[in-house]
Amino acid sequence: MGKPTDPDGFFPDMERIDSDVMERVLERASVYEPSDYGEDDVLRALSGDSTGPEGFGALLSPAAEPFLERIARRAAAETARRFGNSVSLFTPLYASNHCSNECVYCGFNRTNPIRRSRLDRVGAEREMRSAAEAGIRDILLLTGESREHSGTDYIADLVSMASEHFSSVGLEVYPLNTDEYRRMHMLGADHVTVFQETYDRERYSQLHPSGRKRVFPYRFDSQERALRAGMRGVAFAPLLGLSDFRRDSFACGMHAREIQRRYPHAEISFSLPRLRPFPGGEFGGTGVSESDLLQVSMAYRLFMPFAGQTVSTRERPVFRDNLVRISATRMSAGVSVSVGGRSGDASGDGQFDISDSRSVKEVTEALVRNGRQPVFNDYVRT
User: Fold this and answer.
1) 14, 57, 60, 230 from 295: Cα distances, Å
2) What are the distances in angstroms from CA 87 to CA 101, 134, 219, 249, 302?
3) What is the band of 5 on the pLDDT scale with cuts at 50, 70, 90?
């Protein structure tokens, strides 16, 4: 697997870029104290035409909880102004669940005794055709974080295949170097999602006792490397419940804002994942309610109005359907988190348990009933 070669733990093949984004974000996040905010701070954040970092911090604070209905009206108006009533649909494709990390909260943990599997070309083609036949035009390719079992050649092959079926191809794989992201982009990938998991470095080390994922700064710089490689868009997220969700969400917002300022052409989006039980175990975490998740989503919307937001099948159907009326703009449909599960030939266990198992057709019909416009393709590759 190789050994770290410097104080930050970088492995020999990990690229270090010239960037001060991490230092700036963590410095700003280190002085954020949710309990410092009061009612006046929240009202001030809601009174202006735009929301800066201080207002964002107020909207994430406990002081904002009595004002959630008012914040929801403002967030819904902002979403309608920027996105109309459209909701983009996509589906994830889990190609492999092999992983070299030991994340204590994840079903893919290399010590977890689950069925391991990797799709071959026939299996990947079958999964992609199943998604395309359901109407999907936007796919997110996922693998466990194992360069041994899902090397860059394997991922490149998946991207090439996917680009034949879909208008938009996203990656949620282990962090890559700039030249590797550039290769994937040239083959058809156009956006990258990386969960930082938690922005608390001490907590991060506790949660990742072994594996390449231990290298916090390398993971942190993933979105910047992807954009330098030519990717159209990048998504950010902490996994809510691993640490203080307010602090993590604040740091994530600062991270996305800093990247947006440096790469103004980039399409920025947030994901909204909460901890879920997983095959082989359950990690308790800190506990994040639906109300907490709603508050985070609305704060993101008012802080970065143009940023997309994805609500996943980790959440109940009714919650997802309501959130797209307020602040979310993208949702998955027809989801299986098992390797090969979409086409009914699951050969590997999933990463976590889902709460919304509706088909693409069912999600589409629910959106229409909800006054939303399902969008299957919002990008034309040139």
Assistant:
1) 36, 11, 7, 33
2) 34, 17, 29, 23, 18
3) very low
Place of tokens 């959630």: 68
63-67, 91-95, 282-286, 289-293: range with lowest mean pLDDT? 282-286
Task: Mark residue 254 as left, alpha or beta (left: phi above 0; alpha: psi -120 to 50; beta: remaining).
Answer: alpha
Residues in CB range of 206: below 8 A, 6 or more apart = none
- The domains located in the chain, with CATH, are 21-95+131-334+353-375 (3.20.20.70)
Q: How far is Cα 3 from Cα 20, in angstroms, rounded to an integer?
A: 25
Q: Rounded distance, CA 379 to CA 382, Å? A: 9
- Per-residue pLDDT at 283: 72
| Rounded (10°) CA dihedral 79, 82, 84, 88 | -80
Determine what percent of the chain is predicted with pLDDT higher than 90. Answer: 85
Q: Which of 266, 267, 285 is nearest to 275 (CA)?
A: 285
Would you state the structure tokens that stand for residue 328, as one six-digit string?
Answer: 């979310």
